[in-house]
Design a protein that fits this description.
The structure is a homodimer of 234-residue chains. With 234 residues, chain A is an alpha/beta fold. Chain A has two domains: 66 residues, Beta Barrel (Ribosomal Protein L25, Chain P), CATH 2.40.240; 157 residues, SPOUT methyltransferase, trefoil knot domain (Alpha/beta knot), CATH 3.40.1280. Chain A is 29% helix and 30% strand. In chain A, the strands form two sheets. In chain A, strands 8-7-6-11-9-12-10 form a seven-stranded parallel β-sheet, sandwiched between helices. In chain A, α2 packs parallel to α3 and α2 packs parallel to α6. Chain A is elongated. In chain A, 40% of the residues are buried. The interface between A and B is medium-sized, with 32 and 32 residues.
Chain lengths: 234, 234
Amino acid sequence: MQIFLAHSFSGHGEVLLSPEESKHCVKVLRHKVGHVIDIIDGIGNFYIAELTVADPKQCVARIISQRAVGVKKPYYLHIAISPTKNADRIEWLIEKGTELGVDEFSFVICKRTEKTGTKIERFRKIAESAVKQSIQGVIPKINDGITIKDFIAKEKGSKGKKYIAHCLPIKKTDLKNILNEKEILVLIGPEGDFTEEEIALAQMNGFEALSLGETRLRTETAGLIVAAGFKACV
Amino acid sequence: MQIFLAHSFSGHGEVLLSPEESKHCVKVLRHKVGHVIDIIDGIGNFYIAELTVADPKQCVARIISQRAVGVKKPYYLHIAISPTKNADRIEWLIEKGTELGVDEFSFVICKRTEKTGTKIERFRKIAESAVKQSIQGVIPKINDGITIKDFIAKEKGSKGKKYIAHCLPIKKTDLKNILNEKEILVLIGPEGDFTEEEIALAQMNGFEALSLGETRLRTETAGLIVAAGFKACV
């Protein structure tokens, strides 16, 4: 099933596609004026629309019908994660996390983060693709890379519960006990864990220690179990 | 951290490595007699052992100490899944599923399965690698490919609860409501879903309909959400 992502709306009941989507629509899929296509807007709506302009630089389609998509989730989940050395792993997490309804991703650079560069635009494309594939309502917000110190400061005033999943053997809240929360931020560290200073800084700024179980999980698996845990228990 | 997988035991307090692991031990990692290495046996034990024979065809190590590893899980989870067209996706599921404690994988060929060949040996290597990486106790059982009809017949006498996650809009049990079960089999179909005949056959043979949520999930994501749901709620 081919679904297009709306770029903008004309205000006259028409949807406009981006140059990239338009090129794909006309040159690859060979749609013509009069063809009916499926479109989502990435913020909760699905449209059936008829192509009125089949221009590979900018397609326009007239909305025939629309409906709300995606189930209203009872929670908002923000996953803040240290980028992995192997970019495939984070890209996989973004794809799976998007399918599982993660609302926001941040990429947090810690002392032991092995890869400080983040291909944010690529991550956004992966998320868009996953949203189309699963006909999700909403594309997750994908934030630029940020140091852990700046991230903790940035989140200082945020409402909702904040958790840091680290490996120090102290008393922690279990994941299963937070699955009924409504607004959640989970901070996941690099393979070598956060430093004690990073953990102390987080805990002094409202982050509670979170346990994701007894076994060692890869960074992206940790992100996945959080996303899936909430989705499974909704 | 380099962990080796034990091939066999001498019966005299010694562990033997496979030819492959031995070659890696001696030729790549350059271990010599007297070096101390970490070994798991894939069935719940972790050993610290001293190399007594550093032969690239067969290494032998004398056990210095051993301990149980992996947390005893209160459940046994068997995921039976239709192999995906893109082998990477199933390989991710095996790697992540193993980290998340899945006990057994079966590959079930349905009418709409797009790829009938399964690289079982490769899947086993991936599972072994994931077990070493996460120092899990137990390597999941990885069964050969089987048709859905034969699989349903094979599981006829099995104890534990059996579920089929299909997309027909009938009344189903929610995943969150089965997370306290102790012995579970979940059957997940191809991207095009099971046929009505396959669903009927399963339901006539003890499989209950399971819902994994309202949004459409890729086959391997469905497997992940089941694995992670149980792991998160243990």
